[in-house]
Amino acid sequence: MPLLAHNDVPYLPDGLCDTSPPQAPYPLWLSLAIFLSVFTVLQWAWSESRDTWVERLVIHEATVKPAAALIQILTPEVNAKPVAASIKAPGGGINILNGCEGVEVMFLLIAAFAGVRLGWQRRLIGLAIGLALIFALNQARILALFYAFRNERSLFDLLHTTILPAVLIAAVALYFYVVLHRSRLA
Description:
Blueprint: E1 3-4, E2 10-11, H1 28-48, H2 53-74, E3 81-83, E4 86-88, E5 94-95, H3 103-114, H4 120-151, H5 153-185
Antiparallel strand pairs: 1-2, 3-4, 4-5
Helix pairs in contact: 1-3, 2-4, 3-4, 3-5, 4-5
């Protein structure tokens, strides 16, 4: 409970700007229903965009081109080039297919934010930062896969199918947890 000043304006703890009581969370069944509904609709919409300009925009332009540019910055001698859904380079490259662009993890985060009761500002800021985090982590994942394929092919399948997807999901889950509990952590 905030302390009252001499003019009846409450003194608030650092970082607290609203004296209204915190909203009760949604019941678990409602959070799950919202989460599953939003995730299902997003997955359905993404599957409907297969082989369209939307898929090409996400994969070719927003995923492959930035990854190839990062490879060129980090190791220009590799001479990596974006070619449609592939990063081509002498000595080996990789294909970025539907499912490798990180969209499903973004959908999980969007659905998670939809399924919890948060203020709009906190929800939008948390979602924007989270989506940027997913993009950055997925780009790092693509670079790790590119270099693993070129330098240690025996690691590629393990990294591609198990380790890196689990790391990406765990990082995003941790981020979501921190956003939800940041007032308690401060």
